[in-house]
Amino acid sequence: QVQLVESGGGLVQAGDSLRLSCGVSGRTFSLYAMGWFRQAPGKEREFVSAINWSGSSTYYGNSVKGRFTISRDNAKNTVSLQMNRLEPEDTAVYYCAVASNPGVYTRTAAYAYWGQGTQVTVSS
Asked: Which residues contact 41 (CB under 8 A, 6 or more apart)?
């Protein structure tokens, strides 16, 4: 059974930083790409960032490019999302997900397992 547990969300002010982490168990973590998505109330789930199996390739959504950084530690089965210069528009529930394959993917359909999500709220 694959389990993903996100942590690190919270309430911050615009311009602040947060670091989200996601621990994965029940699967050979190092074989698969990982992704972060977010969903704001009334909106569809949005791609935020993805990283391939080795960490050598990363990809970001346009709205977070230059502010967020994804990384992974295959020895610890964790993936992290460093979020800098947060904006009120970043307010959402953030989800980490395990892809079905090693590459980098932006579509939700490419991800087989999802965490429960962690709330990030950015006040203006």
From this structure: none
